[in-house]
Specification:
The protein is of the alpha+beta class and 340 residues long. The chain has helices at residues 2-10, 15-26, 31-38, 44-83, 102-116, 130-133, 144-148, 171-179, 219-234, 287-292, 309-317, 330-335, and strands at 120-121, 127-128, 164-165, 184-193, 204-214, 241-248, 251-263, 268-270, 275-285, 301-308. The relative contact order is 0.11. The chain binds phenylalanine. The site of phenylalanine (PHE) has 11 residues, from strand 9 and strand 10. It catalyses: tRNA(Phe) + L-phenylalanine + ATP = L-phenylalanyl-tRNA(Phe) + AMP + diphosphate + H(+).
Length: 340
C-alpha cells in the first residue's frame, strides 16, 4: 500500500490532482484513515503491533505529500515567471510632458542676464491705479499719451475710483521708488494691456522695465547696460546701438534704441548688417517723476527703459506672428522646439 500511495503522489502533475490524492488517502474516508479506524476493532496485541506501523505510514504519506507540494509549487512559479517576462523591445507608450512657454523662458533668460549685472526683480499688479500708470509718470489727465495707450479701463468702484489694466510696466518704477530708497537697480517683467490686435499687437503682451537710480547714473550707463544685455540675450559678440531722440513724458531726454541687424527673407540677424531694428524705449528719468515719487532730483538721477518681451522672443527664435504665442497650439510650440 505504501509503495502504491507514494507512486500516486510522485506522479501528480498539478496541485489540484495532489489534493485529490490527499483526500483519497488521508481524508475522512481515505484509505489510510480507514485503516486507522480499523484499529479500534482489533485485539489489544494486534493493535500494539499495527498502531505504530499505521502511524508511521500516515507520517510518511504526509511527508511525501508536503514534498510533492513544494515541487509542484516551484514548477508553477517557474511557468509564471516565463509567461510574465517583460519584452523590452515593445514600443513605449508616450506620456507627453508640459514645457515652459517661450515667453516664460525668455523672461527667465532676461532675469538671469540682469541678475548677473546686479539687478533685482520688482513686481506690480496688472490692475493699476491711474496714479501709478499715468499721473506719477508725468502723464496728467487730458495728456495725449493717455489716448495713445488705448487703455482698458475698469468700471469705477464704490468710491468712484477707476482702475486700469496697466498699459506698460512703467508703473512698477513708481511703486519701486515709493517703497525703496536709492540706489535702485531693478527690472520688472510682466503682463501689459492695450486695446489693439493685429499680427504684431495682442491686447495682452509682455514688457520688461528697467530702472536705475543713483547719484551719478548717466546715459553712458544706460547704453552700456543695454549693450551688455543685448549681447548676452542674442548670444552675439557685439551689438551696435543707435539711440534716436524720442519722447516719453516720464523720461528726459528720451531715446528709442535701435539695434544693427540684417534682414534676410523673413529672418533677422542681430549683430551687424545694414539694417536697424527698434528694440525699446528709454531715457533719463524725468526729474518730475522723481519728485512725484519723493526722490530728490537735486541728489539723485537715473535711467529707465522698457522693452517688449514678445518682440524680443520673436526675434531670438525667428517667429513671425505674435498671436501664435497666445493660441496655445501644441504643434506650434513643438515646431519651435518648446515641447517634449
Ligand atoms: N513705457 C514705455 C512704453 O511702453 C517704454 C519706456 C519705458 C520708455 C521706460 C522709456 C522709459 O512704450
Amino acid at each position: 500500500l505504501k509503495a502504491d500511495i507514494t507512486e500516486q503522489i510522485k506522479t501528480t502533475t498539478d496541485l489540484v490532482a495532489l489534493e485529490d490524492v490527499r483526500i483519497a488517502v488521508l481524508g475522512k474516508k481515505g484509505s489510510v484513515s480507514q485503516l486507522m479506524k480499523g484499529l479500534g476493532g482489533m485485539a489489544p496485541e494486534e493493535r500494539q503491533v499495527m498502531g505504530p506501523l499505521l502511524n508511521a505510514l500516515k507520517n510518511e504519506v504526509a511527508d511525501a505529500l508536503a514534498d510533492q507540494k513544494d515541487v509542484l509549487e516551484e514548477a508553477e512559479l517557474n511557468v509564471r515567471l516565463q509567461l510574465e517576462q517583460v519584452d523590452v523591445s515593445l514600443p513605449v507608450t508616450e506620456h507627453p510632458s508640459g514645457t515652459v512657454h517661450p515667453i516664460s523662458q525668455v523672461m527667465d533668460e532676461i532675469a538671469e542676464i540682469f541678475a548677473s549685472m546686479g539687478f533685482a526683480i520688482a513686481e506690480g499688479p496688472d490692475l493699476e491705479t491711474d496714479f501709478n500708470n499715468f499721473t506719477a509718470l508725468n502723464i496728467p489727465e487730458e495728456h495725449p499719451a493717455r489716448q495713445m495707450h488705448d487703455t482698458f479701463y475698469l468700471r469705477p468702484d464704490a468710491e468712484g475710483i477707476r482702475k486700469v489694466l496697466r498699459t506698460h510696466t512703467s508703473p512698477v518704477q513708481v511703486r519701486t521708488m515709493l517703497s525703496q530708497e536709492p540706489p535702485i537697480r531693478i527690472i520688472a517683467p510682466g503682463r501689459t494691456y492695450r486695446s489693439d490686435s493685429d499680427a504684431t499687437h495682442t491686447p495682452m503682451f509682455h514688457q520688461v522695465e528697467g530702472l536705475v537710480i543713483d547719484k551719478d547714473t548717466h546715459l553712458g550707463h544706460l547704453k552700456g547696460t543695454l549693450e551688455t544685455f543685448l549681447k548676452a540675450f542674442f548670444e552675439v559678440n557685439s551689438v551696435t546701438l543707435r539711440l534716436r531722440p524720442s519722447y516719453f513724458p516720464f523720461t528726459e531726454p528720451s531715446m528709442e534704441v535701435d539695434v544693427q541687424c540684417s534682414f534676410g527673407n523673413g529672418t533677422v540677424k542681430i549683430g551687424d548688417g545694414n539694417d536697424w531694428l527698434e528694440i525699446l524705449g528709454s531715457g533719463m528719468v524725468n526729474p518730475k517723476v522723481l519728485e512725484n515719487c519723493n526722490i530728490d532730483p537735486a541728489v539723485y538721477q537715473g535711467f529707465a527703459f522698457g522693452a517688449g518681451i514678445d518682440r524680443l522672443a520673436m526675434l531670438k527664435y525667428g517667429m513671425n506672428d505674435l498671436r501664435a504665442f497666445f493660441d496655445a497650439d501644441l504643434r506650434w510650440l513643438k515646431h519651435y522646439g518648446f515641447s517634449a
